[in-house]
Design brief:
two-stranded antiparallel ribbon, 2% strand, MPAB/Lcp_cat_dom
Length: 268
């Protein structure tokens, strides 16, 4: 994305990134990413020690949604401004490792890279499983495009996986650092059963199934770390249900799901 003028879109209308984000059910990827990110002990500890996500889960999701929109659908200037604000917040935060007591910066490259890769891989996984057709070349193009978003949070794009193969290799390298902590379990529980007030609380009966579907979308190795992999047919059955959901949701009027998201996450 280098070379674009400030007033130009961060990602053009024909970019693979815009195709992925336009998929309504790709929002499941956001939930999937949170389950996945929580498997990194330092990443989840940093959130637990510096965030009010348990008391205000919808506010956190709303903030994530605003950032995602600014950095994918906004102009270069808007994306850079959003990145600067996020970097300023991260720069002021530290956390401590519950296992060792060691203090560390929230904006350390290793943590930022983990959060980035888990997020972008989760979104494209959700979009494709709910019906978006992408060729291997387009998937690689998507990951290459996303290195521009990684740069917004302060990462060197050259250190960020920019293809499906490199993402898979990255996961293989980092898996030794991943395990379930009490903070990860707490995050998972609050994703499935968040503390929300009316009117959003009316959706509690459907919130849990949606969150559980996002959990079921995790890679087998990630579900195994949580201790609940599911039966061998889990992925096949889930994929059929997600394709059906993608078809049904795709038939809604343009803008309907965005309006619903605003109502749920940012009520007036």
């Amino acid at each position: 994305m280098t070379g674009r003028a400030p007033e130009e879109p961060m990602f053009g209308p024909d970019s693979v990134t815009r195709q992925v984000i336009r998929e309504p059910v790709s929002a499941l990827g956001g939930f999937r990413a949170l389950f996945l990110q929580a498997l990194h002990p330092r990443a989840v500890a940093a959130v637990a020690q510096n965030s009010s996500y348990r008391e205000q889960p919808l506010q956190r999701l709303a903030a994530v949604r605003r950032y995602l929109q600014a950095t994918t659908e906004g102009t270069v200037a808007q994306a850079q401004a959003a990145g600067q604000r996020l970097r300023a917040v991260h720069a002021a935060l530290t956390a401590y490792d519950p296992a060792t007591g060691e203090e560390y910066r929230v904006d350390s490259p290793d943590l930022l890279r983990w959060v980035h890769v888990a997020e972008v891989e989760s979104y494209v996984d959700a979009a494709m499983r709910t019906g978006l057709r992408l060729s291997p070349r387009q998937i690689d193009e998507y990951y290459a495009e996303q290195t521009a978003r990684a740069a917004l949070v302060g990462l060197d794009p050259a250190t960020v996986p920019d293809s499906a193969q490199r993402v898979a290799e990255y996961y293989e390298r980092v898996r030794a650092d991943l395990h379930v902590t009490k903070e990860a379990i707490g995050t998972a529980v609050h994703l499935v059963l968040p503390r929300v007030q009316l009117p959003q609380g009316l959706l509690a009966p459907v919130w849990a199934p949606v969150a559980l579907a996002a959990y079921a979308m995790l890679p087998v190795w990630a579900r195994a770390l949580y201790g609940l992999s599911g039966p061998p047919a889990t992925d096949e059955v889930l994929d059929r249900a997600l394709r059906l959901a993608g078809t049904l949701v795709g038939g809604a009027p343009a803008g309907a799901w965005d309006a619903l998201a605003r109502f749920l996450l940012e009520p007036s």
